[in-house]
TrEMBL record:
Matching InterPro entries: AB_hydrolase_fold, Dienelactn_hydro
Pfam family, one: DLH
UniProt source species: Mytilinidion resinicola
Domain Dienelactone hydrolase, first and last residues per copy: 32-273
One Gene Ontology term of the molecular function aspect: hydrolase activity
Protein name as catalogued: Alpha/beta-hydrolase
Keyword terms, alphabetized: Hydrolase
Family matches, as PANTHER family: DIENELACTONE HYDROLASE, DIENELACTONE HYDROLASE FAMILY PROTEIN (AFU_ORTHOLOGUE AFUA_4G08790)
Length: 274
């Protein structure tokens, strides 16, 4: 069994997108939450975004939520880190895009690894599963109470990707989701975290993801197929960890992968939140 027991410098790499989010901020279940609504203003099909380590204020995730709202979903991005997300300024400090990363010297890679440990170690302790999962479950419960809400999905990225997978375990009507989508999840235990999946689950993985390698992805596919779970696993060639949320939109290949990953999620939720 392979386990994602740590995070690599990939978790701190990527690009900040340009654009101005158009949603609003309100408090739901005690958590500050970014809300993007469809033109119908109906919460019948709602999607909860489970963020990466950069949190709910990261422009990329808000702009993506706006796109899901345009597709007809009410999108919620709760501050599940309770004001303790890592600062966006760290995004480029540790690891550059793949083309540059491949040319780093051993000394540079060693320095990056050391910095990752100092940055992420304490943060991961503060936001371990025993702390974070009850917060996420509680938010799902609150969304299900919102008048007009019918079906609920979750989408997660990196750190939040694992919690999207775990959300697909739930059968309790108060906290269960109707479908889940995990983009390049990190810290997952393979096969353990996938053996409990009972709700429809879609995965988007990069072929160059150092957090979830080819062997692990193959194991995940085998587990889900053996269980007979409603699932799909898409592998994006040449893409690194974080590509669906933090890819370089100025690079044609990366932008195409980001767009495909967005379509993958929207089509999955259109099917299972209908």
């Amino acid at each position: 069994m392979s386990t994602g027991v740590g995070m690599s410098s990939c978790c701190l790499s990527g690009k900040v997108q340009e654009g101005k989010p158009t949603g609003r901020v309100e408090t739901i279940g005690g958590l500050q939450t970014y809300v993007a609504e469809p033109s119908s203003n109906s919460p019948a099909k709602s999607i909860i975004f489970l963020v990466d380590i950069f949190g709910w204020e990261f422009p990329n995730v808000r702009l993506l939520a706006d796109n899901y709202a345009k597709a007809g979903f009410t999108a919620y991005i709760p501050d599940v880190h309770n004001g303790d997300s890592l600062p966006i300024e760290l995004l480029q400090d540790i690891e550059p895009p793949l083309a540059v990363r491949e040319n780093l010297t051993l000394v540079q890679k060693t320095a990056a690894t050391a910095k990752v440990g100092v940055t992420l170690g304490p943060w991961l302790v503060r936001h371990r599963e025993a702390v974070s999962k009850p917060i996420i479950d509680g938010f799902i419960r609150e969304v299900r109470k919102i008048p007009g809400t019918d079906r609920v999905g979750v989408i997660g990225f990196c750190w939040g990707g694992r919690y999207a997978v775990l959300a697909a375990h739930a059968t309790d009507p108060a906290v269960k989701v109707d479908a889940a989508y995990a983009c390049h999840p990190s810290l997952v235990a393979v096969p353990g975290d996938f053996e409990g999946v009972v709700q429809p689950l879609s995965l988007a993985c990069g072929s160059e993801d150092s957090m979830l390698d080819e062997k692990a992805v193959r194991q995940i596919k085998e587990v889900l197929e053996k269980k007979g779970s409603v699932s799909e696993v898409e592998v994006y060639e040449g893409q690194v960890h974080g590509f669906a949320l933090r890819g370089d939109w100025q690079n044609e290949k990366d932008k195409e992968a980001m767009d495909r990953a967005e379509r993958q999620g929207i089509e999955w939720f259109e099917k299972y939140l209908a």
